[in-house]
Amino acid sequence: MKTFTGAQIRQTFIDFFVEHGHTAVPSSSLVPGGDATLLFTNSGMVQFKDVFLGTDKRPYKRAVDSQKCMRVAGKHNDLDDVGRDDTHHTFFEMLGNWSFGDYYKKEAIAWAWQLLTDVWGLKKSNLWATVFKDDKGNVPTDEEAAGFWREQPGFMKENVLYFGRKDNFWEMAELGPCGPCSEVHYDRGIQYCDKQDVPGHVCRVNGDCTRYLELWNLVFIQYNRLSPDKLEPLPATHVDTGMGFERIVSVLQDVDSNYKTDLFAKPLDVLRSLTGNSEKEMLADFTPYRVIADHTRSAAFLIADGVVPGNVGRNYVCRMIIRRAARFGTKIGLKEPFLAKVAEAVIATYGTFYPELEKSRGAILDNLTREEIRFARTVESGTAQLQNLLDGIRKSKSSSASKLDGQRAFDLYATYGLPFEIARDIAREQGLDVDEVGFRAAMDEHRIASGGGKAMGKMGGEDAEFFTGILKDLQRKGRLDEHGVEYDPYTSPRVEGEVLALILNGQIVQSASFGDEVEVILPKTGFYVESGGQISDEGFIRSLPPFSVEEGGWEIEITDVRKPSAGIIVHSGEVISGQPKVGDQVIAEVDMPRRHDIMRNHTATHLMHAALHQVLGPHAVQAGSLVAPDRLRFDFNHPEAMTPGQIERVEKIVNDAIAADMEVISKLKAREDAIAEGAMALFGEKYGETVRTITITPLSNKLSPGMSEISSELAMVTPTAAVEQLEKYSYELCGGTHIERTSDVGAFLIVSEGSAAAGVRRIEAVTGRGAYELIARRFKTLKQTASILKSSIEDIPQKAESLQDEIADLKKELLSLRTQSALSTFNIQLSNVQTVKGAAVLAVEIPNSDAETLRALADKFREKYPKNGAAVLASGITVISVVTEDLVKRNLKAGDLIAAIGGRGGGRPNLAQGSLPVDLKVSEALAKTAEAVKEKLK
Ligand SMILES: [Zn+2]
Ligand SMILES: [Zn+2]
Known about the structure:
Bound molecules: zinc ion
Helix content: 25-40%
Number of strands: 34
Strand content: 15-25%
Mean pLDDT: 89
């Protein structure tokens, strides 16, 4: 047998059918478009269903694809088996070739045979085919397909078997298109049978053991079912085939588990390096590894298709499989978030064929880690609570109660975020079970009770009115004073208070549950609300004192803060544990590492603003700004692109200001005073009577007299002396949050400079951790480049230059070889000169030549025919025409010749250059030359 990588197997399948006239169609999304009955795309058929039903048309009649599929919910639910065995997956790929009223059984069977045996090299005598024979005797036996199988070269004629409706008849639904199918099975040999010891086991095709594997199902759609016992032939017949990708890879790579193919090699390597286990140790306890590898792959593909962890439908499935993978991680000793590392390996394996994975890399890694962290906060108390319930069941004498009540299972989800599937895993590990129907019912009931499905109330005026109502109500009850919610993002990132209001789905509620997206109003907040370009804070609101979840504790992850109307500040986020209630005491805590990144970027923005004034002039004032944790973006007035030298200077000045460790001071002042002192204010911005100012000042101004010696010494050795001489380095009106000393910025790097609008430039830059990451990333690239170039980092420029020189030399050499080869073609063609009205005429195609070569050849022609000659030379779409002076006088012009054969171009009467239309055949165009000369020549 030949050896192929998984990627090669997929590609050879697609290439094979493309060679046979099929169009390669990309996989459709895991979220089926326009099919509300399906949670996930679960077969290759989904994206072509409407074509078979006749309600959709495609520009092709033959298609080939590899379809992403999920079987994790509903009728096709393989979740129970995933991890326990070597063949089941939640996500898998289905290879298929399709005929829409085009070819039929003969071709489908011949191509299947050719691909399996010639291309992939499977042993012919090990292949079996099954065809349809109606066990009820109503539908004709598919002797047609059986006959085609027996015709295949090398097919063992006795290897055709007949099976009935269960195995070999396919129906799309109760009514509609249907037909017989023919399956290809592969005999892996008796050693693969897992039922050798089972009494009564008959080892054969469809014998339900692991020796015979169904590789490929060819469905021949030829009937339309009108009623349970009435079929009519379809006017056009179709082919729909499906081959489980993971299975064929395991067969072609000759391994006894899909998880031992190269498709899972990288993710499993990552897991083994994390656990430190050997391959032998891993195989001895393979289930957790299989579950994690499978679930991480599914989650990565789901997130790439826009399905992120959540509480309902597809989002619930995404959450559940991530949490299930995380729990299996704890079984092999993995505690820290680890799924992102596994997902990197999934992306490395699949990213080339499925570019959506590469594109969504950030979202995939981020969602996995976030969900793991959320789960880790509650999993212990959740499983402990479950254990109590299971112990209770075991103690109760009643034999009927071996199942955990569905409502209780739902309570575990609503409080601890423990998905049903995980509760069931744990119960089953102890010989118990969980009532699934009861769980679903409780979940549906909760969704209706919490008003799920309604849009969030973020609708302009209506929204403001809604929140003004809440404000007035809270003021009437004395919970808020006339100023409303107290806002102080400057002094304390941790604020205590009481939950004044909870909003869920645009409605005021008294409590919320796990997974709910809620809005919370507190009497006071330290969360910054987006303004002046600085984006809002994130963080947590937690019940106080920090009760455990059993004691009624809870936690909300805050991802946005806004001010929908005067006096009201709303924190929005997801309940990640417990059940928050109005009146609960809480602590609201800003995510400080993130805020710190933001503050570094904000202070750096002020430093850069000042530096731009130094380098470009006072006209370079702010026109827009974004201050985020990972970067800053600054727009400013300047009529032209900055030169590389200017960019470098700005970067240098800001980094000097950082190194000078200046003080950042905020002060409240009367607006007029601040402006009079020269504080930078933004044109068009509205400021109140009292303004907040940010001054950045060299520390030396504040040094005590005794320190001045040291400071002047320092000034001599540091390059920042110029900076320190300034009294105020920067002075701006600003409501944002800043670090206390410029040295906290760490480092400042400009990432890009470009145009934002007419007369407005835009700089993007990074600081602190972002700057470190950028440097680390670029160093990695440099190291890779050095290793590719087999050079040291320092020698890269030299090495690249010498490579460029080498390429230039090779190009020259190639050109001279091409000219030589063109010349020899040309010399041969000279014998084809025709005589037209006494003139020597040559029309010739010289492949692979550029215009320069063609002109050189035209000169050659003139050397040979200094008089009485005309030639048209073409290569691809380039065409050159040459006419001797005496013929020009006889009214034959070079440009006219090009026009006469269908080209366009211009030049002198004796030499013209042009191009031929791409769809024109060059030989046909050239054939018109003689006729054109005959016509023009007087
Ligand atoms: Zn068997
Ligand atoms: Zn500012």
